[in-house]
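Chapter summary example: a protein plus adenosine monophosphate.
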Amino acid sequence: MGFDAVTDIREDAALADLIASLTRDVSNFPQRGVQFKDLTPLFADRTAMNAVIDALASIAAGSDLVAGIESRGSLVAAAVAARLGTGVLSIRKEGKLPPPVLREKYTREYGPAAIEIPADGLDLRGTSITIIDDVLATGGTLGAANRLLERAGANVTGAAVLVEITALGGREAIAPLAVASLSRV
Ligand code: AMP
């Protein structure tokens, strides 16, 4: 389906309701003022997980590679890649990969961070990639992932998330990168 049809995906109210019903909201975690979206119950639910992977696979269809942000985005990206028959790339948190790495620093809802991919042994030039993460908050993470992959020569088609926290303005912050969200809060 690809990003031309993301509007249809966003309008799947039944899927959005299912995601909401299996999300555990945790106040003041990991720090005061943040309402953490714990998607563990959703990931463990056969019906919901399959519906989410189907929806994300239809968004990412046509990409050469599905990239997920460690760790929950990578978990979902691996399932989407398996559904589509593509490769998967886990974009790692700082300090997890052996050097040399490409690193991109950013600010997210709860403080500064950095993400990395290997600088050796991985040729992303000309590769079309959909980035997947669990939650879009301020957009810092997806923006950094987009910059990182573009620095590596990839062609980022767009990003997809399970939950978009609209009040934090992430979509606007990372424009013109296209973002498809399966649910919005
Ligand atoms: P941001 O960069 O601000 O858009 O934050 C998105 C990243 O941080 C994602 O990788 C999420 O896993 C995590 N994150 C940020 N805010 C939340 C939240 N309220 N609940 C769950 N995860 C969050």
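Key point: The chain has a mean pLDDT of 94.
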